[in-house]
Design goal:
The protein has helices at residues 5-19, 43-46, 53-61, 80-88, 106-111, 122-134, 136-142, and strands at residues 26-31, 34-40, 70-74, 93-96, 115-118. It is an alpha/beta fold. A five-stranded mixed sheet has the order 2-1-3-4-5.
């Protein structure tokens, strides 16, 4: 499958996070065909359990008014924390790189009328799979296990 430029940018954020010693999950927020914000999981880097990629992206966006005309891209299906933010801010569409290594809150988002598109990208699956295998304690801490 062709990776569009927005998912490519989210993957770049994930790789930056990994290079910083963090968890390789990246996100971008798009409006009118342009990236208006980007983020990555910074829980390790900032010692902040709330700094998941999607939350970081939304914080970095600042106050933008309505989110009803935005699309959130994430390399991994959002967890319940991040899916809650998607629902709270009425983000209508989330495009994810994968949901194989983590099942997340897809059903929850769909139940709240969020369109979820899973690209099932091998690059994302392999990046997260490798990270989880090599860092199980850190991964389990991040998802609250």
């Amino acid at each position: 499958m062709h990776i569009d430029s927005f998912m490519h940018e989210a993957i770049g954020e994930a790789k930056k996070g990994l290079s910083e010693g963090g968890i390789p999950i990246g996100s971008v927020l798009v409006r009118d065909g342009k990236i208006i914000s980007r983020g990555r999981n910074r829980r390790v880097q900032e010692q902040n359990p709330m700094k998941h990629a999607e939350i970081d992206c939304l914080v970095n966006a600042g106050r933008i008014g309505s989110y009803r005309d935005t699309i959130l891209y994430s390399t991994l299906i959002p967890c319940y924390l991040c899916a809650g933010a998607v629902v709270q801010f009425n983000i209508p569409k989330v495009i994810v790189g994968e949901a194989r290594t983590f099942h997340g809150a897809e059903k929850f988002m769909r139940e709240h009328s969020v369109e979820v598109v899973n690209l099932n990208l091998m690059e994302c699956i392999e990046m997260m799979g490798r990270f989880i295998r090599e860092n199980p304690e850190l991964w389990n801490e991040d998802i609250g296990m």
